Structure formats: structure tokens, C-alpha cells
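As the next step, I wrote out a protein sequence along with its fold in C-alpha cell form, included below for the reader:
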Amino acid sequence: MGIETAFAEDDNSRDTSLLQVHIPHTLTKPNGYEHREALFGIPPYGGSINQFVYYADSDLCDSNVKKTIGYPTRPKDDSGKMKPWPSPYILMVDRGGCTFVQKVRNAQRSGAAAVIIADDTCMCSAGDKCKSNTGVECETREPVMADDGSGSDITIPSMLLFKQDADVIKTALKANTSVQLEMAWALPNPNKVVEYSLWSTPSDTIAKEFLTLFGETAAALGTRAVFTPRMYLYDGILSNCQGPDGQNECYNLCTNNGRYCATDPDNNLDEGISGADVIKESLRRICIWQEYGLPNGVGEEWWKYSEIFIEKCDTATSFMDESCVQEVYGLSDIDGRVIEQCMTESGGLEGNKKNTLLDAELAAKQSSGVVIIPAVFVNGAVIRGGLTFKTVFQAVCAGFHEGTAPTVCQKCVPCPEEFQCTLDGYCASQSSGVSHELFLGAMIGMALLFALVLLVQYRRSKLQIRQQVRGIIAEYMPLDEEHKDVDWDEKDTQIT
């Protein structure tokens, strides 16, 4: 079963992945296997991984992965050891012993294309379908393959397979039966327009690089890719930052008498950028989007403002400097008076007053369920993996119905230099047969060769001139010998 078939039954489904066994066919399920995706790694949205599975027979917590064990067994080499898992392969490992990130990282270093974590504990909801190990009670809450904070280097995808299904596949593998798995990823694509959003804050260090890169690509995607920037803030009232008398109880982390709060970026409440400063800049960017981005869903001015602000004002002294903001307004072609009016009319940031735009952000935050930032959603589905240009661009393009993606997606998704392709409008390596790096290297090589030829020619010419001069001097030497005793005062000194 392909991924298109799996998702065709429910166009409104928010499921974004499929896990299916194709070989042996006796293990194939009509709608694939129930699973849970990892919250780290980079799935190939719009694509799939279809490879044979090898069971490591280990929890893979040791970084020294033994690739010559596990199932199905392989032939032995000349030394008598079993041959390693043949690449490419999907590796199944047992749950427990260490974090999910550590397991997947070790599998990635061993050469695995993807990882299946075999759950070792039954879910209570599975009932009689799952047999618990002796002395192990069932779990009432599903395990979450969360990032332990160090998963930014994980580039392969992974999934958790529940025990009742993992046991069946492990049994087949231990019986030396070849098992071929398909892991596929798709995004909901209800119409010809893709909606994507970014949850972050103006002080989010991870989001800054993305904001400086994606603006021109957002413009290239056009109005069929509707972007919405979301500002992540805290409800100060729920966080008890507003006291019974309506006063701010959280110092300079909040505005509006403790209603809207943000964390202190530099963890210093006495100096530098405060949480209240972050809220103010968040409201400013919301207003910029309302005026310049909401009408077309692209917001080139918003992207330009964010990029220039990061370049000029993203310091402890300039972040809250109004003169710096005014300069960025001018460089971004934004009417600052309109933005300041928007900030005031929405409720402002002073006193115990509600701000309609900030309240809307709090409501959107609650409905989306976002808890970790930065976070990207495409057509309502959260995108796994780090906030990189490649991850977001491929996810947005994968959100279109097949054959309806914009030209920039069709040209640049298969291009090795995706970012440069979106800027140029074409893929240099596909149009000329060589990449930018190879072309540049060739040009430098030719320049060095040309310089070397000139140097050799220069030295050869210099040597020829020296030899000619020596020849001339040698011709006149006998003349000097012949007349060396002549008294030139008595002779005609003119030589013809």
C-alpha cells in the first residue's frame, strides 16, 4: 500500500505518516501499523523509505554499535564473524535503557536510514491484544518520543511501534524471515493553497537564522503559500503574574499589569532585554503582519523588517531603542506611524487593559497545542525536525496536491542547492550538469593554470632576452681585444 492510498480514505485526517509491512505479505495491514512519530529527526515529507528491517537485538544505548549481530542472520566473512547489516536498512531497536535520541543517534552513526523503536511495555488500552512481560504492568499513558534537548544532530526519521505489533515483527525477524517496511510521510493538502505558520519570539536564537533566509523564498512561493507568523507568549493571569489587586507580580517580564509575559532572553532581570521588551516587539511584528502580510499571505515587508531588525537592533542595547526601530521601518518600506497606531488601538501595553491582538495569539497558542518553540505547522500539521530552510521548504512544497505545486517547488525541491535555486529561479547543477561549487572550483583551477602558463612564458622570454644580450656582448668582445692597445686620443673615435 502506498502513502497516497493510505491517506485517501480520510482527507481531513491529521495523520502525517504511514508504517506498513510489504514483505512478507502476511504481515501487511489494510491501513498500516499504529505508531507514533518522533519529535526529532527530519522526515522526508512527501516521500518514503522502503527498505528491509534488521533487528539489532539490543537497546542500542552503547555508542559502539555491533553491526555483526541481530536478525535476520547474515553469512559469515573470512574471519568467522557475521557480516554487518547491508545498507541501506531500517534498524529496529528495543525501548528502554536510555533516551530515544541516544538510540536513534547511535543507529544513525551505524548507517541506518531510519529507526523503529520496539515498545517493551503494553498499553492498558490494548487489552488482550498485547501480552505483557512477566512482572511488568501495562502503561496507561502513551510514550512520547520526545527530544531530550540534544537531538538537533539527528537527521534520520524514527517511529515507535507498539508492543503487540513489534513482537510479531521481531518474531519473524528472529526466524530469519526478511521483512520489508515502508515508512512514509505526507501532509494534509485540502486544496491548492498551503497554509504554514511559524511559532517563535523576537528573541528566539534558533529562529533568527531561518528568518534571515526564508523571506525571498516566501515571495517566490507566492500567494498560494499563505504564511502566518505567530508570537509565543504566556498568559500572565494563568501564570499568577497578576496579583489580586491587578498589579504586576512578575517584575519586568510582563506588560499590561501582568497580563502578557515572556521569558527574559538573557536571564538578567536588572539589565539587558526584558520579557516586557520581547512582548512589545512581538506586538510590533503582529501589527506589521496585519498591515503588510495579511492581505496577501506573503508579507515581504514583514520578512524584510525581521531580517534587518536582526542585523541592526538585535543587541542588549538596541533591542528596545526606538531610533533603531525607526531606522528599520525606513529600510523595510514600512510606515511606522501606521504600526504604532495599530499597537495603541489594539489595547496598548500599559495599564490593566486587554490587548485584542495579544489575546488572539494566546487563543491560537492554546488551540494549536504548541509547547516547544520554534515550531512550524504546515496545513495544521506540526513539522518534525530542526528549523532549517530545507525542512520547511520541502514541507511546504509537500503540502500541495500532486501536480499543483508552484514552479519554485518543482524546480528546487529535487535540486541539491535548494536555497540558491529559490534565489536564482533555476537549479544550476541540473541545467549545466555541474554544481555551483564544482563550477567555481573549475574556474579557480583554470585561473591558476592560466597564471602558471603566463609565469612560464614570462620566464622563457626573459631567458631568451638574456641569451641574446650575451650573444651581442660576445660578438663585441673580440673587437675590444683588437683595439685595447690603441691610443684613442690620436684616432678617429667614430666607429662605422
